[in-house]
Amino acid sequence: MALSPESEFVAHVLDIVDAIPPGRVMTYGDIAATLGSRGARVVGQVMARYGSDVPWWRVIRAGGHPPVCHENRALEHYRAEGTPLVPASVATTDAYRVDYASARWSPGE
DNA sequence: ATGGTGACGGTAT
DNA sequence: AATACCGCCACCA
């Protein structure tokens, strides 16, 4: 539901996510902003439905946390790509956290 | 048109 | 730090 595979919004979101280089990440909010909208949720919907064909693990939340229930799977990709991570031991009680400050990326870079 | 639904964001408690 | 709540936006019944 919500969002059709032919929508421009979906195409743009998938295009941006697919353009994110390895070792870099973007937040839902940043993607939405790039599209000229603030619908961070909508971006999340797109990922949930069509993110299967795109490096979804490179898309994280504003706090640097990967999508809920996917952190374990995403972690493998991060380690494989060399994405800057912040160990939980020195950061929070969570499993880990993405070094958003260093890994954040913007289209056209 | 109206309401409901989110892989969200931010502020308040 | 962890919840709770509200505000956002695109889309479907």
Automatic annotation (TrEMBL):
InterPro entries: ATL_DNA_repair, MethylDNA_cys_MeTrfase_DNA-bd, MethylDNA_cys_MeTrfase_DNAb, WH-like_DNA-bd_sf. One of its GO terms (biological process) is DNA repair. The keyword DNA damage applies. It comes from the Bacteria. Pfam families: DNA_binding_1 (PF01035). Keywords: DNA damage, DNA-binding. Residues 9-66 form the Methylated-DNA-[protein]-cysteine S-methyltransferase DNA binding domain. GO terms for molecular function: catalytic activity; DNA binding. SUPFAM superfamilies: Methylated DNA-protein cysteine methyltransferase, C-terminal domain. This is DNA-binding protein. The lineage of its organism: Bacteria, Bacillati, Actinomycetota, Actinomycetes, Micrococcales.
